[in-house]
Amino acid sequence: MSKLWLTLFVLLPGSCLVMGGVLALRWLIRRRRSRRQRLTMIYLRTLLLRCDGKGRARFPFVDRPGADRALAEAIAGLRRMTYGCDAAVLRSVVRSYDLEEKLLRRLRRPGADRPRLLALLAALPLSSRMTVRLEPYARSRSRAVRFYALLARLAADPGEALTLLREYPDPFSRFECAELLALMCRGGLPLACDTLLRASEENLRRVGLCMARHFGIDSVRGLVLGLASDERVGCEALETLCDLHLALPDRWAGSGPLSAEERRSLLRRAAYEGYALRAVEHLLYGEERIAFERLAATYKSAALWT
């Protein structure tokens, strides 16, 4: 019993010190995050005044630690939320406060959250020299770092978009296509949908299909229909046809490369988009006809009750 008390007497103070240190660190991190969020809101209001041409409002507390990150997040937030904001004003702020260099220094720190910092850089109006300076991150072992490095390089030099997209080694996921689409919506990626759909690279075709689906580009229906039999992007092409409410092909890729799960997903999408049974019955096999009828009835009932 005495040994137990002696062990507790020795270990408890050390354990309390460690726990106290952990709690103090968490409190400090939350405090810094809260302060940065308050600064971000202040800087966002200041940026709105500047973009509206109401003088050259100053950024308070800009010399404090973490203020550069808060200012960068305010600029990124403004660009994500608004369109048509004066890019020259934002570019002037980035240059005046040397935000590119400061964020690059943060990227080089051990333990830095590189995907988040690169995503932040991608949302800023960057200079073209950043394309070369971010190139080492394009060879990272982390897929997230590689992708956001690509996004930042595209934002820095949109003229090289096709080259950079062709050189990217990984197949784009749906989320990554959506991120690229958001960059397009901000005017940072001037690409033509038909050029992407005619490309031989799978990634370019995926981005083109995502673009056609999002913007409802009906003029590329022939190109999308031609991709429906492609083993690599056939599923995305069929989804695009459904979303654009276009006629489906006589035979879709589901009879070959598509899995049963992908076929069910496409049937759900067709039912949700309001396709009649006669429009898809030539594509149904076995019990899929009954399943489609049930799905269509379910979505129709939901539409009537909403």
How many helices? The count is 16
pLDDT under 50 segments (min length 5)?
Answer: none
Give the total of beta strands: 0
Q: On the 0-100 scale, what is the average pLDDT?
A: 82
**Largest sheet properties:** none
Q: What distance lies between the first and last C-alpha atoms, to the nearest angstrom?
A: 70 Å
Structural commentary:
The chain has 306 residues and is mainly alpha-helical. The protein folds into three domains: 31-97, no CATH class; 111-190, no CATH class; 192-248 and 264-276, no CATH class. It is built from 16 helices and no strands.
Give a summary of the structure in a few sentences.
With 306 residues, this protein is mainly alpha-helical. Helices cover 66% and strands 0% of the residues. It contains 16 helices and no strands.
Secondary structure: elements and pairs:
Elements: H1 2-51, H2 67-81, H3 87-96, H4 99-108, H5 114-122, H6 130-133, H7 143-156, H8 161-167, H9 174-185, H10 193-198, H11 202-215, H12 221-227, H13 234-243, H14 260-272, H15 277-280, H16 288-305
Helix pairs in contact: 1-2, 4-5, 5-7, 9-11, 11-13, 12-13, 13-14, 14-16
Task: Give keywords.
elongated, mainly alpha, 306 residues, 3 domains
